[in-house]
Amino acid sequence: MNKKKLLAPTTIFTDIGGVMLTNGWDREGRRKAIKKFSLDPVETEERHHLTFDTYESGKISLEEYLRRLVFYKKRNFSPSDFRNFMFEQSRPFPDMLKLIRGIKEKYGIKIAVVSNEGRELNNYRIETFKLNEFVDFFISSCFVHFRKPDADIFKIALDIAQVTPERVIYIEDRPMFVEVADSLGIRGIIHKDYQTTSRLLASFGWEL
């Protein structure tokens, strides 16, 4: 693709988990929880997959998700114990946070998060890692009730950010989601590591 023939980008769409922070509640986090709280691994994973999409889509609360996942029977630990463990799995990628924040400050571009996350976990991550200090819009699945790879979440993001697809660069660690965005005319960067993404962003004119 010849970038010289394209309009200069004005907006970054980015995921949170796998790009700026670790994933909020992934298979590894559940593996640790299963071990720590002595849960049945097969049953826990089955229950998770049956109900997690509903939670991420904003249709049920974290309390209800945990009731379906863990607290459908009496336990020797509390929902607060489990919820706190969930939240503690989130860790920052400082270089990526600094990069996106720095580009925002230097070039004055718009930053929009497009992510699949449940409300309580999303709010915790936004507040704890101060994402709202440099992100302009949060198009989270729990707010808009669409989840990637549904193309509608990207259409909503374009409407909210008031930007056309060719003006957007999308940073995402999952190739399928980049492919869906590309089908709408949004150029994507498949995030692998800080060095690669930094170099690709510089090729679009955003260099720190």
Concise summary:
This protein has 208 residues and is of the alpha/beta class.
The profile of the biggest β sheet is:
5 strands, parallel
Number of DSSP E strands: 5
Could you give the order of the helices and strands? EHHHHHEHEHHEHEH
How much is the radius of gyration in Å?
Answer: 18 Å
Q: Indicate the overall shape.
A: elongated
Distance between the termini: 24 Å
Output the strand order for the largest sheet.
3-2-1-4-5
Q: Specify the CATH homologous superfamily of the largest domain.
A: HAD superfamily/HAD-like
Q: How confident overall, as mean pLDDT? A: 96
Task: Give the tally of structural domains.
Answer: 2
User: What is the overall number of helices?
Assistant: 10
**What is the top-level CATH class of the largest domain?**
Alpha Beta
Description:
The protein has two domains: 3-23 and 92-203, 3-Layer(aba) Sandwich (Rossmann fold), CATH 3.40.50.1000; 27-88, Putative phosphatase, domain 2 (DNA polymerase, domain 1, Orthogonal Bundle), CATH 1.10.150. It has helices at residues 27-36, 41-56, 62-69, 79-88, 94-107, 119-128, 141-144, 152-161, 175-183, 194-203; strands spanning 11-14, 110-115, 137-140, 168-172, 187-190. The protein starts with 10 loop residues before the first strand and ends in a 5-residue tail after the last helix. It is α/β, with parallel strands linked by helices. It has ten helices and five strands. The chain has a five-stranded parallel β-sheet, with helices on both faces. The mean pLDDT is 96.
